[in-house]
Amino acid sequence: MYLMKMQSRKESYLEELFLLFQSLKGSVFPVVGTGLGVAIGLGIGGANQMVQFFWPNMYSDLKKTVNGGIDKLADGAQKITDKTGKWLNDTGKSIGKNVNNMKNNISNAWNGVCKSFAW
Question: Which of 6, 21, 77, 107 is most buried, by the most CB atoms less than 10 A from its CB?
């Protein structure tokens, strides 16, 4: 059937290759895919069993390490937030004091001008 399709259609190489894969799909590829899946699964599962044999607390150790790292990151972020908040608060207070001093200076200067002209 594949040869009849090839002869009846003058299609590009990729289309011919696609048709070839379509004709082989039902017979060869499922077996190859299943075999590859089994081999990969056995390899990964076997490696996992070997690691657990030599390092039985691997998963709990990894959890402790990861959670400890996350806690350190959270503490660091909290410290940065606290320092930034304190800096912003101090800066705001300083700006407020400077604005108040400027207002007082202008008010005192204006009062001085008014007193000199007896207004």
Answer: 6
Question: Do residues 16 and 6 touch, judged by C-beta distance below 8 A?
Answer: yes
C-alpha dist (Å) from residue 82 to 11, 29, 86, 89? 69, 60, 6, 10
Domain that holds residue 81: 72-119
Q: How far is CA 25 from CA 3, 7, 13, 22, 34, in A?
A: 16, 21, 18, 5, 13
Residues 6+ positions from 2 with CB-CB distance below 8 Å:
19, 20, 23
Q: How far apart are the first and last CA of the chain?
A: 113
Q: pLDDT tens, 49-103?
A: 998 888 888 888 888 888 888 889 999 999 999 999 999 999 989 998 998 889 8
* Number of domains comprising the chain: 1
Token digits of residue 100: 């108040």
Instruction: Specify if 35 maps to a domain.
Output: no
